[in-house]
Each structure stands twice: as structure tokens, then as C-alpha cells.
């Protein structure tokens, strides 16, 4: 089957009515994103928490109507990206006064020095980082961000990997951001707002930039984007422990960092450097994620530990930081990223989809506590 057009799906939303026929699904929510995978149409509808209660009973009828309306569609899956109201953000402290005080998350040592201010109207900023490339950091960042949105948080995702921006492809975003009052307005998809330098340059163009140009681009992505009211901004950090990481830690008040590693010793050495780097920058480490933890054969379900297993858990214990879970190595993760839909959307019941949702649930619970503490303090 071919991908349906947006008008077809929006027409179905207009036709499906509540039990008392007083309103339609289209009036209770707006079409956020959609894609077709293996003949199944996946649809995300953006709404608020109050209207989500009215929309939820309509989902089975919506799925049946979509299958009937879209030629060749063998099934449909509709999800709601419902958000609770964001807490009233505290005004950003001017840099001269020291900025915001970093938050203490996950039992990490309390930072001794302040960092830069938060972006306007953003509750907390967290980083997804790795000591080296090729460990699945960006895939983890995308699925974590969308998963946090499914947990009911208002989420933004910033791709700070200037040399290798992959967010547009992984999110299925092809349009450039709009400009309003001199600020970039990030596009929304799968329930979150997302911004990347990859939206502003050709996908095949090599970013042959020296350090000062990279730092300038990161500063613009932080300062010239109108994120709106967010509970959390997730930053997909570039790999390594260089200038870009230092700039981000100095320019904004990072509330914590998540380290992504694979199980083998060489990757764990780099993960340890990443933990040490954030410690020196007074950024709490929320925990370590073991990506590519094991491979499960799709034909016989035999489990093979290609890169070893349990190394990240042992490293977390040794370094005194939380262990956040294991993500399997599955072809579906790669396929969903190539097709522009995170695995938490494309295959939510798969082992990888469930692992990422569990990660988002754990991190989301921590962030909710921090937001409540911050609201009380303010």
C-alpha cells in the first residue's frame, strides 16, 4: 500500500463522533503524525489531558474507520499524545547573577557551582550522551523523548550533534522550521517538538566546520529557538568529551545526563570518561543505559549476546550511578529509524518498544519529582 494523504486521515477524524454525537474526534485532537509500516497505519493524535478522556473510547472506532478508508491498509494503530499542563516556569536568572542552580537527581553528589540559565519556559534540560560514537545514542535520545511524551510530559528534543545530525531522518521530519519574531519555531511530530541543524542544511551536505563554528551553531540552537512551555528538553549530545559538551554544560543548566553504552569493555571505558566529564562539570548522572544488550533471533527467538552482557550494569554499580535498563539489538529499531518513526510508535509491543517505554517511565518519574520540587521551591 502507498502512504495515505493527510486529508484522508483528517476526514476520518471528522467523521468519527462521540457517543452523544456532540463532537468529533477532529475537534478533540489534531493529527500529529502518521506513517505506514508493514501494511499497518500508525497515527498519533495530539490532545490535552482533559480531552484525552473523551478521545480514548473512540480509538477502536477510529482504527476501524481508518482501515476502511485507506486502500491496502491491513490494520491501524492510534495513539494519543496527551499532555498535562506545564508548571509555571521561573524567570531565567541573568548570567551575571550566576544563573539557575543545578538540580540534584538520582542520588548524585550535589553540584557545588551554578551553570548557565535555562531556555525560557523550559522546566529542566537533560542530556543523552556517550563517550564514543556508534553506540545508539541518537536512537536512544529519540525514543526516550517520544516515550516521555507518551508518559504525559511536554517534551522538546534538540539535536546538538552538528557534524552528524540524524534527528530529521529518525523523526520523519522533512520541513524546515518556521520563523516567528526572529526565532525558529521547531516542528512537532509524534507528540514532541524537535530541532536540528539537519533541518536547515541539505541531508547530503558535509558539515566541515571548525570548533568556533560548531559552538556558534549550538549557541543559536539554544538561544534562537522558541520552544514554548516544556517540562523537559532532551538534548542529543555529540559523541565524545570535547568542546561541544563543555559549551552545552556552560550555556544551560543541565539537570542531569544519561550515558548510553554497549556492553563491551572498550565502550565502557569511554562511558566511564563520559561520567567523569559530567562529574567535573557538576552535572549529575541520571544513569547508564546498556544498548545492544543482546540479539534475539526473529526466527527462533534464540538470544545471543553479541557484545557481551551486563557490562553497563556492573559499570554503573562501580561508578555509583543508577542502571536504567537494557535495550536489545533488533532489526526493527534500525528499520523504524530509517522509516521516520521511533520504535515506541512503530512497534510499541516489541521487546525494544517496551524497553524504551520502561526507560521513559523511569526517567519520567524522576523528572516529575524534580519538577514538583522546583515548583515548590519557586
From TrEMBL:
The keyword Kinase does not apply. Keywords: ATP-binding, Hydrolase, Iron, Iron-sulfur, Metal-binding, Nucleotide-binding. ATP binds at residues 131-138. The keyword Iron applies. One of its GO terms (molecular function) is 4 iron, 4 sulfur cluster binding. One of its GO terms (biological process) is iron-sulfur cluster assembly. Coiled coil: none annotated. Residues 95-110 have a biased composition (Low complexity). It comes from the Bacteria. SUPFAM superfamilies: Fe-S cluster assembly (FSCA) domain-like, P-loop containing nucleoside triphosphate hydrolases. Residues 86-117 are annotated as: Disordered. Belongs to the Mrp/NBP35 ATP-binding proteins family. Binds and transfers iron-sulfur (Fe-S) clusters to target apoproteins. Can hydrolyze ATP. Homodimer. PANTHER family: IRON-SULFUR PROTEIN NUBPL. This is Iron-sulfur cluster carrier protein.
Amino acid at each position: 500500500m502507498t502512504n495515505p494523504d493527510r486529508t484522508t486521515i483528517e476526514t476520518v477524524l471528522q467523521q468519527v463522533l462521540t457517543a452523544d454525537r456532540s463532537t468529533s474526534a477532529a475537534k478533540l485532537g489534531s493529527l500529529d503524525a502518521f506513517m505506514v509500516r508493514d501494511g499497518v497505519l500508525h497515527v498519533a493524535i495530539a490532545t490535552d489531558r482533559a480531552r484525552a478522556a473523551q478521545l480514548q473510547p473512540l480509538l477502536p472506532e477510529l482504527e476501524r474507520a481508518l482501515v476502511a478508508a485507506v486502500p491496502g491498509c491491513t490494520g491501524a494503530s492510534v495513539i494519543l499524545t496527551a499532555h498535562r499542563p506545564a508548571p509555571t516556569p521561573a524567570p531565567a536568572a541573568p548570567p551575571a547573577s550566576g544563573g539557575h542552580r543545578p538540580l540534584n537527581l538520582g542520588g548524585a553528589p550535589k553540584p557545588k557551582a551554578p551553570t548557565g540559565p535555562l531556555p525560557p519556559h523550559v522546566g529542566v534540560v537533560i542530556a543523552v550522551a556517550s563517550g564514543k560514537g556508534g553506540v545508539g545514542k541518537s536512537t536512544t535520545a529519540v525514543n526516550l523523548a517520544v516515550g516521555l511524551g507518551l508518559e504525559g510530559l511536554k517534551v522538546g528534543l534538540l539535536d546538538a550533534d552538528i557534524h552528524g545530525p540524524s534527528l530529521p531522518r529518525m523523526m520523519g521530519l522533512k520541513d524546515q522550521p518556521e520563523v516567528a519574531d526572529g526565532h525558529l519555531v521547531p516542528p512537532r511530530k509524534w507528540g514532541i517538538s524537535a530541532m536540528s541543524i539537519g533541518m536547515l542544511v541539505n541531508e547530503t551536505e558535509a558539515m566541515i566546520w571548525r570548533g568556533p563554528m560548531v559552538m556558534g551553531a549550538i549557541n543559536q540552537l539554544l538561544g534562537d529557538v522558541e520552544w514554548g512551555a516544556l517540562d523537559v528538553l532532551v538534548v542529543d549530545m555529540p559523541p565524545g568529551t570535547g568542546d561541544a559538551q563543555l559549551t552545552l554544560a556552560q550555556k544551560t543548566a543541565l539537570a542531569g545526563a544519561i550515558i548510553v553504552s554497549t556492553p563491551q569493555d572498550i565502550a565502557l571505558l569511554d562511558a566511564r570518561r563520559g561520567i567523569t566529564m559530567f562529574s567535573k562539570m557538576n552535572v549529575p548522572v541520571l544513569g547508564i543505559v546498556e544498548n545492544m544488550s543482546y540479539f534475539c533471533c526473529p526466527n527462533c527467538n534464540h538470544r545471543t549476546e553479541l557484545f557481551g552482557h551486563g557490562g553497563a550494569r556492573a559499570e554503573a554499580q562501580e561508578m555509583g550511578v543508577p542502571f536504567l535498563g537494557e535495550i536489545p539489538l533488533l532489526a526493527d529499531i534500525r528499520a523504524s529509524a530509517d522509516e521516520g518513526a521511533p520504535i515506541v510508535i512503530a512497534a510499541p509491543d516489541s521487546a525494544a518498544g517496551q524497553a524504551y517505554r520502561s526507560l521513559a517511565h523511569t526517567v519520567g518519574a524522576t523528572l516529575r519529582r524534580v519538577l514538583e520540587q522546583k515548583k515548590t521551591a519557586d
